[in-house]
Amino acid sequence: MMTDHPTVFLHTYGCQMNVYDSELVGSLLTTDGFRLVSHPEAAQVILINTCAVRDHAEQRVLGRLNALGTLKRRRPGLLIGVLGCMAQRLGEELKNRAPAVDLVLGPDAYRRLPGLLRERLVSGATAAFCAGDPGETYGDVAPARGEGVNAFVAIMRGCNNFCTYCIVPYARGRERSRPPGELLDEIRRAVENGFHEITLLGQNVNSYRWDETDFSALLDRVAQIPGLRRLRFMTSHPRDLGERLIERLAGGGAICPSLHLPAQSGSDRVLEQMNRGYTRAQYLDKVRRLRERVPGLALTTDLLCGFPTESEADFEATLELMREAAFDDAFTFKYSPRPGTRAAKMKDDVPEAVKLQRLERMIALAREQADASRQRLLGETAEVLLEHPSPRDESEWTGRTRCGRVALAPGSFQRGAEVRIRVEAIRGFSLWGKPAAPNT
Ligand code: 5AD
Ligand code: SF4
To answer: Which of 147, 258, 275, 317 has the fewest CB atoms within 10 Å around its CB?
Structure first.
């Protein structure tokens, strides 16, 4: 027998876009009478929102589904649903790999989730895969956000870039932007609810377009929303990052001096094979413009090693690009072939041991650069938007600077308070400093 408010535990793997999607799913479910719970033990439904970008991410999900299969043998009524990119990529096939799964729903199919769950809770109907509507933007769904100071807002969905290594265009479908009016309403509501910092999300925010409104124009409108203190966005594609956007970053106001600009490789030959649409020189030229125009910018990147045909010289060109760009932080990955992509048809010819060794070298340099970037801030002042007491030491609060760096301030504050600190020390990966005078 079904209870009035079936309980759902929702676990999210992967990127910020998945976090946002889980907030949409939470909203769709609670609007339909389901109740979200914070532990899987008692839940009638367990949903896993998945990532398919790397093989490693999928293996983790399969491991988790295997464990849930054991749980289901003890609790036969339990429903297990797989959402997100891996659901879309594998579809029906997921049932063979994880027999305990009842529902498989891609990123454009979440509207069907409450109905499909109810059917199964009542009648135990058989497993289903659902791909959904390729034009879906969930424009009318108000994300169910937890408490915090930062809210994600997806301004677009999907990707048309087809970088040859990447599964996202297959898993998330074609690019579609949301209308500015709808976005402004969503952001205004979030700000009214205490989210002082907004991060606009898209696979490639630079290609946002709705009629005459491009991304720079959208930023201008969002930045004027009363009460909004900080505005960030990700991810920017280097090919599409233009002078107008650099000017917005330089202009300050609510727009924060932080930018995530994935380079992927420093070798022109590899960039071409990846279909990235820019050269090393073009990338570095944009970095030079950014550094000139946006002093204090925190520039982060994604880097991929071991792409098919990558030689030692190609890899060294990536390390050299890292040095020239002087990144403030870098997310580093070793290539894994994703079935169905163009690169997966190429021979995966860089031996695993070489990939691992290159990855370690990239990680070491990235760590060095991140350390140096924090050290440069010693003695500087920084404005910290405080989020919560530090989990390590309740007598301190943790938050982020305008550049997005984690910072600690001793004292007791309220969520959303903004303090100015002089950076006196680096504690682990965090800046530390006593607050001068509170701004709010
Ligand atoms: N293998 C390894 N890393 C990948 N990424 C995307 N596809 C792959 C793949 N097949 C990395 C890229 C991207 C980040 C989100 O994940 O660096 O920017
Ligand atoms: Fe993948 Fe390239 Fe699209 Fe980014 S821009 S999601 S790497 S295809």
So the answer is: 147
